[in-house]
Amino acid sequence: MPVFKSDFLPTIPFRNSHFNTMYRPLFMKDVANFSRKRLTTWDHDFIDLDFSLVGSETLVLLIHGLEGSSESHYMISTTNHLKNKGLDTVCFNLRSCSGEDNLLLSTYHSGKTEDIDFVVNYLLDHYDYKNIVIIGFSLGGNLTLKYLGEKSDQISPIIKGGIAVSVPIDIASAEKEMDKLKNKLYLEVFFKTMKTKVLEKAFKFPEFQLDKEQLFKATKFKHLEHLYTVPVFGFESPEDYWEKASSKPFIPEIKIPTLLINAKDDTFLSKECYPIEEAQNSAFFFLEIPNYGGHVGFMSSFKPKENTWLEKRIARFIKENIQIPIL
């Protein structure tokens, strides 16, 4: 599919990437009313799903980003907008992210699509929806694209399409961007919860031999991957993890309408995270590269009612390209 020409044009302060990235989590105050369902997994753990239901024939599965949850502001605003459009939503809290630590040593990572498959199959088996759309943000977007590509030959016809926002589809090069000074503040924010979680896991599972001194010194995602992700999930190295978890190689395999929105000024993303050639060569994969928006920002102005470009864009793609009727 051709690359979409984006119509997103924020007011001047919001054309600064960092300003746009930080404005949503700091100043947006939306709330959503959820009904929680806890699933027991095949490996004796649990996954918490937060539903917002209006009686629709369509369910939208929302997957948050790194260290997010159903309470992340982009999850709440998307839930509320789609609810107003007459669609049911369910927010998938990745393991350890629902406000309660999961039961196992392992939690989640950028490529852990077996959890996505488990939740999707649960929804298919226990609900009678005619349509399901999967939407992921950042890390959740990587999971969405990878899942839709790797499962393309056996995916249920009920799964009608996908949308991914602000996605580091090439993890190796994106992590090099994250290591730069421009992203130091974001890394510190992520590390506050990530390091705490790893320490808690080491306390609960003493057989897990964690080098706590190295954990305290960690300043890059690669350091945490070496200490936790690689040994816990069985990767050979951080590089092995990057290669196996990245969604970019799976994009050409996607066979249902799927949109990726990556802002050109997103400081988290490398040039390899803008798959223009893949979009041009695919009948199903759409790409939109707004000039502005930051990382899961896409705020337009200081007026809250005007800060719905992303939510409206998501709804428009569902209606026009996935062709699901909405209000």
Describe the structure.
This protein is an alpha/beta fold and 327 residues long. It has two domains: 12-169 and 246-320, 3-Layer(aba) Sandwich (Rossmann fold), CATH 3.40.50.1820; 171-245, no CATH class. Strands 1-2-4-3-5-6-7-8 form an eight-stranded mixed sheet. Helix 2 (73-84) packs across helix 11 (309-320). It has eleven helices and eight strands. The longest helix has 21 residues, at 184-204.
Give a quick precis of the structure:
By secondary structure, the chain is of the alpha/beta class.
Question: Percent of residues in beta strands?
Answer: 5-15%
Distance from first to last alpha carbon: 26 Å
| Domain count | 2
What is the succession of H and E elements?
HEEEHEHEHEHHHHHEHEH
Structural class: alpha/beta
Level-1 CATH class name of the largest domain? Alpha Beta
Mean pLDDT: 97
| Strands, total number | 8
CATH superfamily of the largest domain: Alpha/Beta hydrolase fold, catalytic domain
* Rg (C-alpha, Å): 19 Å
Tally of individual helices: 11
Low-confidence stretches: none
Q: What is the CATH architecture descriptor of the largest domain?
A: 3-Layer(aba) Sandwich
Silhouette: globular
